[in-house]
Design a protein that fits this description.
The protein is of the alpha/beta class. 33% of the residues lie in helices and 18% in strands. It contains four helices and five strands, in the order αββαβαββα. It is globular and about 40 Å long. 39% of the residues are buried.
């Protein structure tokens, strides 16, 4: 794991605000922001449940969709700050988009993508192109959000 900065903490705090907004509208409490040079360039909260079941609308996906096209040439300088360790879908998207760092608030012990790091395809040998994986940051706040995500999904027919 790589160390985090005070700016990372500030961005996780914004992601927490987005997570609470998502929860207030009936969704799971996950929030994410994308930064470039410590400046926020896009953000999103989970929209998996608030508009009917939309399984691909994770907070990270929502934030990535808001990144201005002209900034993608600098993707390796971007950081995704998210309240919950990304799942395989979100990790794959971040990986293929070339995002350079992932900073997460809570470890996802059931579905976090870190479980695949030792089984990456040969293209990613020696960590080439794999974002730095940083966290957990603010687990004292984000672990509680994760517990509510897990509890919410356990009540769904798909969970």
């Amino acid at each position: 794991m790589v160390a985090w900065t005070t700016q990372d903490v500030r961005h996780i705090e914004r992601a927490v605000e987005l997570a609470l907004e998502a929860e207030a509208r009936g969704d799971v409490p996950v929030g994410s922001v994308i930064t470039l040079g410590n400046e926020l360039v896009a953000e999103g909260g989970a929209r998996v449940l608030s508009e009917g079941y939309q399984p691909r609308r994770h907070a990270e996906q929502e934030a990535l969709a808001g990144v201005p096209v002209e900034l993608w040439a600098r993707a390796n300088e971007m950081t995704c700050h998210t309240t919950l360790e990304p799942c395989l879908m979100c990790f794959g998207t971040l990986l293929l988009c070339g995002v350079g760092r992932v900073v997460f608030g809570a470890t996802d012990v059931l579905g976090g993508a870190r479980f695949v790091f030792d089984a990456m395809p040969p293209y990613y040998a020696n960590g080439r192109g794999i974002p730095a994986w940083v966290g957990p940051v603010l687990p004292e706040i984000c672990d509680g959000l994760y517990e509510r995500v897990d509890a919410r999904f356990r009540t769904l027919p798909c969970g």
